């Protein structure tokens, strides 16, 4: 940022240009999934926090769901705990789930809350456990074993997917001047066991439950890329499914695109996968013509 003072006329023009967008999203809920790879440096964290605080201030209701995959990975490595991903999901034993909760619901959640608050917002940190918001069931996946070529069921341990979302607490928070910031850990449907939930999947479940108008998925790539590395600007659900099936979409992008499909089917009007490291990505996407990334719609 330069230190130059903006011309007041330019500021007024910018605000007027944003007016139709503010009206379009007035009182709407927008779920923003803030991926661990999108978090970047202190400047990027501040831009994100400013965007979220401004949205709330102009009458839009942001709900932040955050990840932290790389940060969990770094802590597991420091502790000498081996970790592997299968189909984009972290295999999670009891020791790992304890670290996952510590990093997600602890340090990262509080860091995001503190940064939003430092920018004048009023954020409150929650996890899927709070208020019984999200109950998870164990994920079962069958995958092709590369060694044998045979399909087999893989046990991912304490990896869950949202089974029930109770929106009661979220509704209270959304109706207040608080901005909810949610870590993707949940309890089991049938007891207090902690489950590690992929943050994309979690964000999709929350967006569906609160009838969000938009779901923004902030990551570290410009959006969904085709086989030649070019950005795909728009995708239908069918096209998105095809990209997963033919392997164009792989790794961490799989749960992201699956989530987009789920959210659109649940009635979210549009889901956008975009680069969260570009300055003010959220504001530009919602309040200007300059939206970037991949828009997935019906
Ligand atoms: N077709 C694709 N287009 C874009 N990214 C892809 C694609 N296939 C796989 N990826 C990978 O998915 C990653 C994003 O997922 P992930 O690392 O889980 O991000 P986040 O932490 O933001 O959730 C990208 O950095 C990229 O390496
Ligand atoms: C089951 C599973 O894979 N959980 C994820 C939760 C965090 C996450 O999803 O973070 P990002 O959004 O930064 O990728 C993990 O353990 O890394």
UniProtKB/TrEMBL annotation:
Group of enzyme by EC: transferase
Limits of the Aspartate/glutamate/uridylate kinase domain? 29-274
Instruction: Specify whether Cytoplasm is a keyword of the entry.
Output: yes
Statement: the UniProt record of this protein carries the keyword Cell membrane: no
| UniProt name for this protein | Acetylglutamate kinase
Specify which residues bind substrate according to the UniProt entry for this protein.
Answer: 68-69, 90, 196
Family indicated by similarity:
Belongs to the acetylglutamate kinase family. ArgB subfamily.
Q: What is its main location?
A: cytoplasm
Q: Where in the cell is it found?
A: Cytoplasm
Entry's InterPro entries? AceGlu_kinase-like_sf, AcgluKinase_fam, ArgB, Asp/Glu/Uridylate_kinase, Glu/AcGlu_kinase, NAGK-C
Q: Which UniProt keywords apply?
A: Amino-acid biosynthesis, Arginine biosynthesis, ATP-binding, Cytoplasm, Kinase, Nucleotide-binding, Transferase
Named in its record, the pathway it takes part in is: Amino-acid biosynthesis; L-arginine biosynthesis; N(2)-acetyl-L-ornithine from L-glutamate: step 2/4
Range of residues in the leader sequence: none
Query: Which residues bear the site annotation Transition state stabilizer?
Result: 33, 256
Against Gene3D superfamilies, the record matches this protein to: Acetylglutamate kinase-like (3.40.1160.10)
- A biological process from GO: L-arginine biosynthetic process via ornithine
| One term of GO molecular function | acetylglutamate kinase activity
What is this protein's function?
Catalyzes the ATP-dependent phosphorylation of N-acetyl-L-glutamate.
> Under the cellular component aspect of Gene Ontology, which terms does the record hold?
cytoplasm
> Which domain of life does this protein belong to?
Bacteria
As recorded in UniProt, its EC number(s) are 2.7.2.8
What species is given as this protein's source? Answer: Hansschlegelia plantiphila
Q: Which reaction does it catalyse?
A: N-acetyl-L-glutamate + ATP = N-acetyl-L-glutamyl 5-phosphate + ADP
